[in-house]
Amino acid sequence: MLGYTERMSRTQAYIYILIIVAVVIAAVAVLAHPAFTASPATATQTSNDGRIPQPPLTDAVEAQLAASPDFQDLVSYTDQGFEPATLSIQKGDTVRFTNNSHESLWIAAVGGIGAYPGGENSCGTSALDSCHVLQPGEFWEFTFDVAGTWSYLNNVDKTNTGVVNVQ
User: Fold this and answer.
1) Residue 52 confidence class, pLDDT cut points 50, 70, 90
2) In a domain, 31, yes or no
3) Euclidean distance between CA atoms 43 and 144, whole angstroms
């Protein structure tokens, strides 16, 4: 038998058991995380630069690209919003708005140049209006022929806005 000084106290035993239980619970929580449980078919994979790859281009987008005139500037709509959020261009430049997000995008002017009375809630109420929803991977182009500040938003998620300054 162990002497008194060599025995583990009841308190020490409880502490060791609690530590073991906490480690097991933490391991289960980590392994239950979606990064460990998602199947390869449903897992979102990122590239080395952290971007989520877009799906292959549809035939409609391929045809639009082939028929598209040259553009001078690009605004990318991502899961974080418009990039760049503010763009400065020359009068007569064409901007391509590309939906690189996983959500829908509908470009519409808001206030000021390009906006018509009646607001941005329906097609044709602004000069700057894609008039339809752009799905991920799709794009729309607009030529800015009037100098000034053009404010716009995503009509599907009005919290995402941008500005084009035309000189």
Assistant:
1) low
2) no
3) 40
